[in-house]
Backbone:
């Protein structure tokens, strides 16, 4: 009898070791439970979000912002805008870094027109999306500490992070957070609501990040064509009129005109523009105190 008890005890111990008691699993489930703040609850109530969908949305909204790429804006949300962007100057910036492209312009600023600049840090900062930032573009040859290839996959038919995408103009540090707001609200959001989650509305200011940065070789003193006029340039970005169809007609921004009457905080007080330098190792480093978003404090930095 004693031998049978010992055998059963061993079997029971084995089962516990393999499958666990279930107590730890239950504890983890309890830890993962999301409790919404009063402000979050009020927003979801306003947007009439079903209770079951709130937990996932708020998790995305609470995570650190990161770049997700232009293709996330395509499909069922902003298809006409994506198509217009794809055929705009911003939708082809990576190509300009390849050998043989824009020979005259490169010679004008003393760049080698036959050189491949697709891995050059100084160029990637302004010719790709989110380079050297969380979730941003990584050039060919990028590897993890363990030697795994981490380079951004490029699909020639579907431009994404390798171009100057939506997030370079519309986000502070990537669109992962406010994308969750847009989806949950189904477009019924205010400027203040998306600003709280990393969208920016200071477009004339953000364009100076690249077009008039001191490190760009394409300066007005080199040629008059490099004089930057925001009002003229913005007309080339979203030429969406030619891209509406029966399939995407339901994606028209119904609240666009209403939001245009609102004044966001970033419009009143523009955000800082990241400054950077190339260090001795050839890597791009952002200068301390110049980022528009402090990920540790979760605060935004505005110009004084």
Residues:
């Amino acid at each position: 009898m004693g031998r049978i008890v010992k055998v059963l005890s061993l079997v029971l111990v084995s089962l516990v070791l393999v499958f666990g008691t279930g107590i730890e699993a239950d504890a983890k489930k309890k830890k993962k439970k999301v409790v919404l703040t009063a402000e979050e609850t009020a927003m979801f109530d306003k947007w009439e979000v079903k209770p079951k969908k709130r937990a996932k949305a708020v998790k995305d909204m609470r995570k650190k912002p990161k770049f997700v790429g232009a293709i996330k804006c395509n499909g069922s949300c902003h298809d006409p805008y994506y198509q217009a962007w794809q055929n705009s100057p911003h939708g082809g910036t990576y190509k300009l870094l390849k050998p043989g492209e824009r020979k005259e312009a490169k010679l004008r600023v003393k760049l080698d027109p036959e050189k491949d600049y697709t891995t050059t840090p100084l160029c990637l900062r302004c010719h790709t999306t989110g380079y050297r930032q969380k979730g941003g573009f990584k050039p060919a040859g990028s590897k993890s500490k363990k030697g795994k290839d981490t380079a951004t996959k490029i699909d020639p038919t579907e431009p994404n992070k390798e171009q100057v995408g939506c997030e370079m103009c519309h986000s502070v540090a990537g669109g992962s957070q406010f994308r969750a707001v847009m989806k949950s609200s189904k477009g019924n959001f205010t400027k203040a609501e998306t600003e709280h989650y990393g969208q920016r509305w200071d477009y004339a200011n953000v364009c100076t990040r690249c077009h008039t940065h001191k490190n760009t070789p394409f300066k007005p003193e080199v040629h008059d064509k490099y004089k930057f006029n925001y009002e003229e340039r913005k007309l080339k970005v979203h030429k969406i009129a030619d891209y509406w169809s029966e399939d995407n007609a339901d994606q028209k921004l119904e609240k666009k005109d209403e939001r245009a009457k609102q004044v966001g905080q970033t419009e009143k007080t523009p955000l800082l523009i990241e400054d950077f330098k190339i260090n001795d190792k050839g890597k791009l480093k952002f200068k301390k105190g110049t980022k528009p978003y402090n990920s540790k404090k979760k605060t935004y930095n505005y110009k004084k």
Observations:
- The chain has a mean pLDDT of 90.
